[in-house]
Design goal:
Length: 78
């Protein structure tokens, strides 16, 4: 079993950096969403392709889990 210091190191290294929202400008309700939706996530009608977003989220979650498993295996092999 890992001691608390190693667990804290794992959590610290695996946590994502937080960003400040100070750089985000306030838009008016009349602004178009087209500028804020990345091209890869737009569908043919100019909306959001939710299937593509969900697929990318699934891939990202899988990569995070795989990285955590590799890290745990590396720590246990020490």
């Amino acid at each position: 079993m890992l001691n608390s210091r190693k667990e804290q190191d794992i959590l610290r290294r695996s946590s994502l950096p937080r960003c400040d929202n100070d750089d985000v400008s306030e838009g008016s309700p009349d602004d178009s969403l087209k500028g804020s939706i990345p091209t890869r996530y737009r569908d043919a009608r100019g909306g959001i392709d939710l299937k593509r977003v969900q697929l990318d989220q699934h891939k990202a979650r899988r990569r995070v889990i795989q990285a955590l498993i590799r890290r745990i295996q590396h720590l246990w092999s020490r």
